[in-house]
Amino acid sequence: MARSSSGDRKKSGISANAMVESIVGCKWSLHVLAQIRKGIVRPGALERTAAGLTTKVLNERLSKFVRYGIVRRVAFPEVPPRVEYRFTPFGRRFLKLLDQIEQLQAALDRD
């Protein structure tokens, strides 16, 4: 059976503004979230989606997403170990905000 871990935004005490700034402020965050949305949920596969994305940065991003409650980490008791990242209900709502940012950027690009 898989073990799941997800962060608790309430316990972390982080404001919504700080969370959005932290995520949008990193050039890799939106890319990683977009890949998870497409179904690429394993760390190795995520790392291979972008030249220049290092294991260290990917792990930092994924840990932050878990801490903020955007994704949950699911570890499967297999050999070799398998880990996947899935959106939480909050994460799916958070994606709507990112969609709005993308729409704003598209509108700015047209102008």
Descriptive report:
The chain has one domain: Arc Repressor Mutant, subunit A (Orthogonal Bundle), CATH 1.10.10. The chain is built from 6 helices and 3 strands; from the N terminus they run βαααααββα. It has a 3-stranded antiparallel sheet. The N and C termini lie far apart (51 Å). By secondary structure, it is of the alpha+beta class.
List the helices and strands and how they pair.
Layout: E1 3-6, H1 9-12, H2 16-24, H3 29-37, H4 43-47, H5 55-68, E2 71-76, E3 82-87, H6 89-110
Antiparallel strand pairs: 1-2, 2-3
Give a quick precis of the structure.
The protein has helices spanning 9-12, 16-24, 29-37, 43-47, 55-68, 89-110; strands at residues 3-6, 71-76, 82-87. With 111 residues, the protein is α+β, with helices and mostly antiparallel strands.
**N-to-C SSE string, H for helix and E for strand:** EHHHHHEEH
Mean pLDDT: 89
Return the CATH class. Answer: Mainly Alpha
Number of helices: 6
Low-confidence stretches: none
Number of domains: 1
Question: Which bin fits the share of residues in helices?
Answer: 55-70%
Beta-strand residue fraction: 5-15%
Trace the largest sheet across and list its strands: 1-2-3
CATH architecture annotation name: Orthogonal Bundle
| Oligomerization | single chain
Structure classification: alpha+beta
CATH topology: Arc Repressor Mutant, subunit A
CATH superfamily: Winged helix-like DNA-binding domain superfamily/Winged helix DNA-binding domain
Shape call: globular
Largest sheet: 3 strands, antiparallel
Rounded to an integer, what's the Rg over CA atoms?
15 Å
Q: How many DSSP E strands? A: 3
Distance between the first and last residues' Cα:
51 Å
